[in-house]
Amino acid sequence: MEQHRFEFAAGAPAARRVLVGVVGSGDLEVIIEPGATGKTSIDVTTSVNGYGRVWDAQLTRVFSAEPRAAMNIRIHDFGATPGVVGMRLAEAFEALAQAGGKEPT
Predict the structure, then answer these.
(1) What is the pLDDT of residues 26-57, one digit of tens each?
(2) Edge-to-edge, what's the strand order for the sheet holding 18-21?
(3) Which helix (H) or strand (E) holds 13?
(4) Which residues carry the post-translational modification O-(phosphoribosyl dephospho-coenzyme A)serine, per the record (predicted)?
C-alpha cells in the first residue's frame, strides 16, 4: 500500500460531506469533506505501488483547470484505472452540486 498527498488552490469551502464509490476490485471510494478556504487537500491510499506520477497527472488535470470548492478529499483505491478515477471524482462533484455544495463543474 502506498499513500500520496496532493494540494491545490481552491475557493470557499464545500458545503457538506459526500461519499461515492466503494473499495473493491478495480474500484475506489472518494470521500469529500469541507476544507479550509483556499486549499484542497487530497490523500490517496492505493494498493498499486509506484503509481504516484499517474495520480499526480490525473489530479493535476482535474484540479488545475479551474478553481473548485475547498475540500479535504480521501481516496481509497483498489487498483482503479485513471478513467475510473475521473468518473468517481465527477460523480462526487455532481453529488456535491446537487446537495447545494456549489461545486463548479
Answers:
(1) 689 999 999 999 999 999 999 888 889 999 99
(2) 2-9, 39-46, 71-77, 28-34, 18-21
(3) none
(4) 25
| Of 11, 56, 7, nearest in space to 34 by CA | 11
The C-alpha cell that represents 16 in the structure block = 457538506
Distance CA 70, CA 38 (A): 6
pTM as predicted: 0.88
Contact (Cβ atoms closer than 8 angstroms) between residue 104 and residue 66: yes
Q: Which amino acid is at 26?
A: G
The position carrying cell 495520480 is: 55
Q: Which three cell numbers stand for residue 75?
A: 481516496
Cell triple for residue 13? 469551502
